[in-house]
UniProtKB/TrEMBL annotation:
Organism lineage: Bacteria, Thermotogati, Thermotogota, Thermotogae, Kosmotogales
Highest taxon in the source lineage: Bacteria
InterPro entries: Acetolactate_synth/TF_NikR_C, ACT-like_dom_sf, FeFe-hyd_TM1266
Cross-referenced Pfam families: TM1266-like
Protein's organism: Kosmotoga pacifica
SUPFAM superfamilies: ACT-like
Name the record gives this protein: CopG family transcriptional regulator
């Protein structure tokens, strides 16, 4: 199956949902190469960038689960390797 490498950008609009996002990221740790998060406390949001390497199905499952969390927005870009 084709693998892709890319970036998943996650915006957590309510930092109380941050724990749910962390649980999902932990569940998909096998396809995550790196992650950087920036909490912006005065606006009560967090921005997270995640570098992934996985199949279309694996990455789709990750972004789909994240997108179902209330107050979380997900955008991604990938290249086929």
């Amino acid at each position: 199956m084709d693998r892709k490498v890319g970036i998943v950008a996650i915006t957590v609009l309510d930092r109380e949902n941050y724990l749910v996002v962390n649980e999902i990221l932990h569940e998909f740790a096998g396809i995550i190469l790196g992650r950087m998060g920036l909490p912006i406390r005065e606006k009560n949001i967090s921005l997270i960038s995640v570098i992934v390497d996985g199949t279309t199905d694996e990455i789709g499952a990750l972004t789909g689960k994240l997108g179902q969390v209330q107050g979380v927005k997900v955008k991604s870009t990938f290249i086929k390797i």
